[in-house]
Design goal:
The chain is mainly alpha-helical. 64% of the residues lie in helices and 5% in strands. The strands form 2 sheets. The protein has a 3-stranded antiparallel β-sheet with strand order 3-5-4. It has a two-stranded antiparallel ribbon with strand order 1-2. Strand 4 (75-76) and strand 5 form a beta hairpin.
Length: 236
């Protein structure tokens, strides 16, 4: 994966598909960088700087940042500066509570639509997560974990909660990168294996418990980190 470098951070580049308009490509590229935490909390973004990095005009960058601001991923300040928001303990707890609420709902409503091919794909993605954990690839852990959850929830063709869930992921992404990089072990129990077993049995209760446990394990790991409140305050 090639990266575009600025004076103080790199962007993971994303190939522009022919059907995408420029502002859509810029949005997807910035969104992916926020999801994996490539752009850190408190970092200021400029339309001109991003346009130069991506070799596009300012307009598609402005449109992409406006869309990301509507999802809570960035904040536009009074002086028109755009920053990645800092995380607070209170905001972290609220976002995690909402994740549990929305994602257990999304998993439960996806279950009736699950096919054998979906389970095979989820197993493949979980294998990618295991490989990323083994290699210590922090960004890949985040991105493939999102892929697993998104793939599960999106099997419901009537699912409307995924955009809401992804907004939560976007807000947590930059902070989660810091937290995951400080963890000695990313997880002890693979809750995705439990979720897949529940899918095979068609057991909604077990599935929702596995998804909730997956999220709570992550919360507990973050809160157990030494100096986590310094990270919340932006001084670590």
């Amino acid at each position: 994966m090639k990266a575009s470098r600025s004076t103080n951070f790199e962007l993971r580049m994303l190939e522009k598909a022919p059907h995408l308009r420029t502002h859509q490509w810029v949005y997807q590229l910035l969104r992916r960088n926020l999801l994996c935490g490539r752009i850190s909390p408190g970092h200021a973004l400029t339309i001109r700087g991003l346009a130069q990095m991506l070799q596009v005009s300012p307009m598609p960058v402005r449109e992409a940042l406006h869309r990301l601001a509507s999802e809570g991923a960035v904040e536009v300040k009074d002086n028109r500066r755009v920053i990645v928001p800092m995380m607070t303990a209170e905001k972290f707890n609220e976002l995690c509570d909402l994740r549990i609420l929305l994602e257990t709902h999304a998993a439960g409503t996806a279950l009736p639509h699950i096919k054998a091919s979906d389970i095979t794909e989820l197993e493949r993605i979980d294998g990618q997560i295991d490989a990323a954990v083994e290699a210590g690839q922090v960004e890949e852990i985040s991105l493939t974990n999102h892929d697993f959850h998104r793939r599960l929830y999106s099997t419901n063709p009537h699912q409307i909660s995924v955009p809401l869930i992804e907004s939560l992921w976007l807000q947590l992404g930059p902070f989660s990168r810091i937290a995951i990089s400080k963890l000695e072990k990313t997880y002890l129990v693979d809750r995705h294996v439990e979720a897949i077993a529940a899918l095979r049995k068609g057991n909604a209760d077990d599935l929702c418990r596995a998804i909730e446990a997956d999220i709570r394990d992550g919360i507990a790991s973050v809160k157990s980190l030494d100096g986590i409140y310094d990270v919340f305050k932006g001084v670590a």
